[in-house]
Structures are given as structure tokens and as C-alpha cells.
Design brief:
Elements lengths: L8 H13 L3 H4 L3 E3 L10 E3 L4 E4 L9 E7 L3 E9 L3 H8 L3 E11 L7 E6 L7 E5 L5 E8 L11 E8 L5 E15 L31 H18 L7 H9 L3 E2 L5 E2 L3 E2 L14 H7 L3 E2 L13 H12 L6 H18 L13 H14 L1 H6 L3 H11 L19 H6 L1 H10 L3 H19 L9 E2 L5 E3 L2 E2 L1 H18 L8 H16 L23 H12 L5 H10 L4 H8 L11 E5 L4 E6 L2 E6 L25 E6 L22 E3 L3 H4 L15 E7 L3 E9 L12 E9 L2 E10 L6 E10 L6 E3 L2 E3 L4 E5 L4 E3 L5 E6 L3 E11 L6 E15 L4 E8 L4 H13 L3 E6 L3 E6 L4 E6 L3 E2 L5 E4 L3 E8 L4 E8 L23 E8 L3 E4 L3 E4 L3 E8 L5 E6 L40 H16 L1
Parallel strand pairs: 14-15
Antiparallel strand pairs: 1-11, 2-5, 3-4, 4-11, 5-10, 6-9, 6-11, 7-8, 7-10, 12-13, 16-17, 17-18, 19-20, 20-21, 21-22, 23-28, 24-25, 25-26, 26-27, 27-36, 28-35, 29-30, 29-32, 31-34, 32-33, 33-36, 34-35, 37-38, 38-39, 39-42, 40-41, 41-44, 42-43, 43-48, 44-47, 45-48, 46-47
InterPro entries: Chondroitin_ABC_lyase, Chondroitin_lyas, Chondroitinase_ABC_I, Gal_mutarotase_sf_dom, Galactose-bd-like_sf, GH-type_carb-bd, Lyase_8-like_C, Lyase_8_central_dom
Family: Belongs to the polysaccharide lyase 8 family.
Pfam families: Lyase_8 (PF02278), Lyase_catalyt (PF09093), Lyase_N (PF09092)
Amino acid sequence: MKRTALLPLNKVALLLGSALMAPNAFASLTPTILSFEESSIPTWINSDVTAVSFSTKRAILGDQSLLWQWNAGEKLVISKTFTRYTDTEARALYGSSATQIISFWLYNETPSASPATLTLANPEGAYPRTTTINLNFTGWRNVTLSLNNDFASSVPNKFGQIMLSAPNSGSGKLYIDRIMVSIDDSRYQWSDDQITTRYPVEEINFDLPVNLPAPTSAELAAIEQIKTRLMKKLGTGSANISSLESKFNSFNIIKRADGTITGRHLITDPQQTPYQPNHLSAQDKADYNEYALLGEGDKYNSKITGYAQLMLNLGKAYHNPLANKDRIAEMYTLMTEHMFDQGFVDGSALGTTHHWGYSGRWWYLSALLMEEPLRQAGLLDETYKALLWFSREFRDRGFEMNVTPSSTDMDFFNTLSQQNLAMILLNPDEREKVALLHKYADFLSATIDRNPPGYNDGFRPDGTAWRHKGHYPGYAFPALTSIGDLAYLMKGDEFGFQTGALDTIKKAMISAWIYTNPTVPLGIAGRHPFTDLSVNSSFAESMKNIALSYPRVDKELASIYLTITQQSAAQSVAIFGESITPAALPEGSWTFNGGAFAVHRVGDRMAIFKGYNQDVWSSEIYTNDNRYGRYQSHGSVHVLPHGDPVTHGYKQEGWDWNRNPGTTTIHLPIDELESPRSSTLMVRSDAGLSGATSLENQYTLFSFKHKAPQNLDRFEPSFEMNKHALGSEKFIYLTGNNIRNLDGSHRTETTLFQLAIRSGKGVNINGVSYTGSTLNTTLQSGDWIIDDNHVGYYLVNTDPVKVYRGGQTSKHNKTKAVTSGNFSSAWIDHGVAPNNKQYEYIMVMETTPQEMAQLASAFKAQPRFVTLQSDELRQVVKDTSSNLFGYTNFAESTFNQGYITHVDKPSQTLLRVDALQQKMVLSGSSLELNYQKDVDNQVLPDLTTGPAPVSITYTIKGKWQLSAGEAQVVASDNETMVTLSSDFAMPQEVTLTTTSLPLIPLEPSIPAQPVEPEVPEEPTSPSSSGGSGGSTSPLLVFGLGLLGLLRRQH
């Protein structure tokens, strides 16, 4: 399209320089672009001998490019003045690591053996900075160079000449377009066959033997079977290709009679960064929006997307016997030729192809589907070489197929692992193909079946799956889905996964089934709160594929698959070849200290406890994601019914980001709550600890010791607290202490619940139901409340609890748009600047008013849960109904309650004593993952192994012997030393027996009577349901009797 003439470059430079000095970053991030759309050559373009002209034959941005018909030794000079920013200034503008670049496009019609030279100098031609540009190519190529880092010395602060010097021999034509000076991500200036930057070219080397054996018939048959499975998985498209024709036409691809190809300029999503699209001028933005994206995603939502997806869809349609194969092949080959012309070829970096898998993944699979048309068009070899070249971003994370510290990469598994298989199948050399498949199979088994070193991606022994240096379902689920499919595609004696790798995948998948219900909860959602990510659909299909990838069907995975997909034992025969009973929803307790969380499940309800510590981050906040998510892991305790979270009241519109369930927070105005960084923030705690242990798959003890960041804007550095939760049956005993901070302007709160108000749902307070849309009241210790999801809360000893039903406004976590909704909430109000505040309450995961009334009455007579000892570094709690003790020590500690008198390392411990059988079951886990750190508490970057196990030594009253589990036990007359090994902070469980139970102190007598429950005044008309009547439950009577028996035995 034609545009008006550009703003004179000296004025643009002046505006940019002024903006840099001003606090307004908007103007400073606006790129300076030369697009050659004028009607005549401006005076600032100079050629010393040959003519230059504008050409409409080829263009990148707009309709024209600058054509330079050069002869040996001639020069083309663009005289404009630009201001160079330092990397520090660029980072300040961009918000994360950035650099200022010069970037432009060259089209070469005839390769030249001699290079051209690029020189940047000041307006007088002094202080020249030079680099060479190889012209050994045809088609478009991108040149992108950091002004500070990719020349021998930094470009002058005011550079006023951009000079191209022709090769020293020969002649030719160069089309030049879209010269741009802008701010780019500092990772995005890659070397290739044309230019050399500070980042070396890293091409893939398969390192195969020179002499490869001839393939066996079994190997060749296995390859054909793999290919058949993959083609079947990809499926067949519709014979009606009208929608494909329409999509193809949108890319405007035309091949003229002279062979010239034109079409929309094709880029990947990361290649948008240097354009800074939100800061482009209107005229540049209009032309820029004519671009097309190779992948499906456009973070700016302004351009046509899905180029590679169309290629895949064409490939699928090609295999429909009723389709017009000639037309499909014509469109596909034109798209391929356009890609090659645009520079998507071997040896071309295009500036960067960072995050290549998200853009290019469907190209690989489409090429396998269209192998024959590509061969007939003479494009197959070039396609294979291009795919191999662009795979180099993951060279040491998958494509070279060597196990490295970073080779268990979730992005590789998700976006490129099946693509690598397709690429291997495209290899024209049968010997290489077989050798590469063997190498790939060995690599996959080895890299999956390990605990990767440091914070690298991978599958941890506790079932967590890491990406971005932490447990991350948002990346792990797609990776597991792809791996599950890949394992099934490659299964068999020749190229199948080893059993150890299958077991690792199985562990991660079953763990996902445990910590979802079936959707990923808020605490572990990463930067995508209110995600709809779940174990349904494609994840479940991959569970099935892993079950079928074992030598014999894995019945555990198969049964879970049947439950998720709601299929019966009768239907299982057709799927698995035998009758398999669908699994029940998981019930029990599990610890996932690799993510600083624990799960306690009863019936169809899941409670998740979430913290963070020195190794596990609190939340992931990006420039446009999770902007208000700092409290995601603030000791949250969240009970979720099974099913769609939205139907259970979890919706973003109006959500108060200060009040995630169970968290203790300083309640901030929304703009103060927003992350202080415009880019990534992933807070860890140098001083805090958080972790859990589980016992007998029935009980969970979770603790979170919080100390706020000390040097982070908008974070109150004095904020500290300890939080604990004990899960037993359907009850959760929650305590908090040492809650303190110096913020005198904002109230500190512990949230009980926050749920969107739904029709017919309400709360019940001390037996009175409230279903109206408004309520504002206060509860005291001794009161109880049931929330809209039938979760009960009995307030044992708390500050005043505020209950609110009504409207509230918030902001969207990504767009920051104002949102609103009607919510039902309750929170403990600790006031401003709390000093060593505490709380104690009980949650009942699903309850009725009658049961809550019984609980309140029974608790006043004889508390089921008691805190025996508590201070800043330790706590002892007890569930009297099961003689269960929970010990938390944040440092080496002595105890004066229960059976344990000393623990030598920070740990979580649960023990249950069976007085009748004279046995103790004990579970202990480290509160530290035990990564090796440097003096700045940073994990060592060159680790080659995972963290070492932590030995925990307990001193226990009495003389005990080991009867089950692994531990070192040394007993004396009146005490026993028990040493456990906690690997990756996983619980280690042992059973001890004795011939004589030791005497232990009686727990404190019944605490001071709580305030008698008062029915709050209802501002609106309450409904008539519930009541506080009823008798004590038989279970409680039995528990009290057993408690008396235990006391007498002690």
C-alpha cells in the first residue's frame, strides 16, 4: 500500500532522544523505520557511482523496497542521525534484558562469493564500526545487530551514517527494505551464514559413526509401523477444501511468470518484539499489520495467523482419497516456496527464531504428510535441511539427542518431540534414519528417567514436573500429552521407551490426577490463574497411550483413563483388550514438596495446601499475565469440589486478588498489589520455609514460614508469619502465629473463602441460612459458618471474622481491565500493623449445619485438635481422635510435648501411636530440597546431578525397634535415635514397635471457653433452613472414649 512520506529522520531522532530523557517510555520505545515508500529518492540516500531506485518487485514493509544495482567497491550511504541507547537504558525502557539494534532486510538475486561490509559511523564518518555480510544466498535475509554488543566497539552515541560497501569483485542487485533502529530483547540477535553476532552459530551434530550398519528387516518394519501410527494420529482432512482455499488466499501468495514470488511478509511471534507494536506510529502500524504469522498465536491480535497450521491442514486433506490432490499440492508447494523466499531456509536466522516450536511445529508434521508432493516438486531436500537448521534452538535440549543438564525440556517435549520424529522419518538415508531412531529412543528414555540437576526442566521423583525452575502444570500437561503420544508411536522392541521412563511418565500423570479435580487449582496455576487446564481430553488420551505402551497394559493408568473419560468396564475391552474397572476418585494424602504443596482428598473433594520457599517460587508474573498474583502461594488452603470451578464459584470477574482461599495477606489497593516489575517476577524466599509430610496416605501436615522480600517495591519487608494445617479425615486444623508487619495503612487478613454468588447458594452462620445478595457481619471465636460450597469453618480462637456478600470490583490479571462480580467472602481481620497475631480454626471439607453444631458443642467439651507447643521456630499439634501428633521445626529444635524430644534439621513430622498394638508409625520429610547453593544462595549452575537426600535424626522417648521401612535405629534404656533419609524432601515412613509405651506429658487441659455463638443480625430476609440441634455423633463418642483409654494407659 502507498503511504505518505516518512517523518524526516532528524526529527524522529530528536524525538527519540528527548523521550529517552523524559519519564515517558512510550515515545522512547517507538522504533525508527525506513520503509522506502516515497515517490522519489530522498537526498539522504547517496550512492557514489551506481543508481539506486525504488522497486515494487519485492518488499517487506509496505509496497516498495530500495534497489541497489552495485558494482565492485561501490558504496551506498544513508545519512541520518540516530541516538544510541546503552543496554541499561534499553532495559529501563523495555522492562527486562534488552538492547538497541539495527535491523534490515536484503534480497539477493544472485549469490556472491565475496561479502558486503556494513559500517556505522557518526555524521562526519568518524568512529566507524564495521561488520561483514555474506551474500552467498538468494532470497530475503535479515540482518539484526546489537549496537552495543555485536561490533568490536559500541556504535557512536550519535551515529549518522549507515553505509553498505559492495563486494570487492563482481556486480549484482540488492533489494533493501525496512531499515529499523529499535529496542529488542537481548536474546534475539542470532548469528547465521550471513552475519556474525555475539551468539555463535550452533548447528546440530548427530555425531553418528562414519560407517553405519545396514538396517535389519525388523528395524525397517518397525519404522513403517511408526510412520503408519503417526500418519493415523495426524488424521485425514475433509475433501471439501473451500475453507483451505480461503485461508490460502488470505496470505496473498502469487508466483509470477518470471518465478518471482510475492505474498505477506511471514514472521514468528518473537520476531514482533523489535517492532514494539504498541508503540509504532500509525503509518508503520498499518503496514506492519499486513504481516502474517507462521504460528497460531499473535500476542497483539492484529495480524493473520496460522500459516503452518494451514500447511498441516492441507497435508491432512491431501490424504483424503476424495480430495483434489493436485490443487492441494499446488497450494502447499507455493506456501513452501514462499517460505523459502522469505528466508525460512538452511543458514538463515531471520534475526531470531526463539520459541521456534510454538511457531514452526506444524511445518514438520505437514512435511511428512506432503513428502511425495515435495519430492515431485524438488523441494524435499531443502525442506529437510531447513527443518534441521531451525531445530538448532533446541540443539542441546533434544535435537542432538544427548542427555545434558537441560535436555529434559518441557517446551521440546510439547512442541518439537513428535516433530523430531517426523524429521527423522523424512531423512532420505535409510542407515541414518535407523541410527537416529535408535539414538532418539535411547535419549528419550535416559533424559526422562532421572531427576535433572539444578532447577532444570524435568520430572521429579515426587511427581512434580518442572519448567521455569519450578513445578508448572501449564507446561507439564502439554509436554506429558505429547510424550504419551510419542511413547505409543515408538512402542515396540526396536525403538520403544524403556520401562523406567514409562514409570516416570506414569508417576507424573497419576500425580496430576491427584492434584487436580479435574482442573488445575489456583495455587499451582503459574501465570495463568483461573485456567481451564485439566486432566480431561488430550491429557487423558495420553494416559491411555502410556498404558498401552507397556509390554502389558498398565491397568492403573487404564482405570484412571476410563474414569476421566466416563467409560465403563464393558467399553474397556475394545480399548485395552481386556475388562478393566474404572478407578474411584483418589482419596488420601500426598506430599509434593517439589512444588511446596500437599493434597488431602476425601470423597470427591480436594484440599490443596500451597506455600513457597527458597527453591520454590511463589507465583509467576509476566508483563501481560498474572499481574496481581503475588499471594498465590501465601499459605493457601483451598478446598475444591470435583467439576468445573466456575460452577463452584471460582471466576475472575470481580475476584479480589488479595483474598485467595486460606492465605494470610496485607490487603492492598489493586494498583499497589500489582507487580512492581513490568516484566517477569518469580519471588522466592531466602529466609522462609514451606513443606509438608503425609502419613499412611491418610494424614497431611503442611507448614509455611513467610518472610517478605526485603528490597522489592510495593512489598512490605516487615511482613512475617507462620501458618500450619493438619488434614485428618475430612477435617483440616489450621493455625497461624507470629503474624506481624509494620504496615499501618492496610489491614492484614487471613481469608477463609471467596466464592462468586450463585443462584440458590448461600452461607449458613450458626444455623441460620443467608442466601441473599447482601450481607455484612462479624463473627467471633466460637462461631461457625458454612460457605456456598458446603465447606464448614469453626472459629476456635481468632480475631474478628468479617463476612461479606455483595458486589466488588477488580482487574483482569492480563489486560488490567476493570471487572466486577458479586461474591461471598469471609476473612479473619488481624488489623493494621499486627504484632504477633495468631489464629486457630477448623475446616470441614463438606458438612451440614447439624454437623457443624455438633462439632462446636463437642469441641467445647473436649477439643479434638489441640496445639501443644508453638513458637516462632516450632509447633506441635495433636488430633486426639487418632492419637496423631504433628511436629514442625523450622530449625534444629527440642520439644517438650508428645513423643519426640529433639529433631536435628528443619522438617515436617507426623506420627501416630497405636497404644493397643504398642507401635508408632512415623513419617518425616525435609523442609529443604537441598540444592547446592553458592554464597548468594543461588543454585549452582553447573550441577550434573540432582540434590542429595537429607538425613533427619529424631530423639524419641522410650525404647523402640524398627519393624517396617528404612531407617537407622539406635535404642537406649529411655530414648531412641531414629535417622531417616528424605530424598527431594519426600516423606520417609517407618513403623516402630515397643514393649513398653513411654509416658508423655498430658496435653494442656481444655482451653478457655470460646465465646458463645451469637446469631448475627441479618440485614436482608434470611431463608429458613438449617438449625443447631442434634446429638453428638457416635464417632465422636467413640473417639472420646478411646482418648480416655489412651490417657489411662499413659
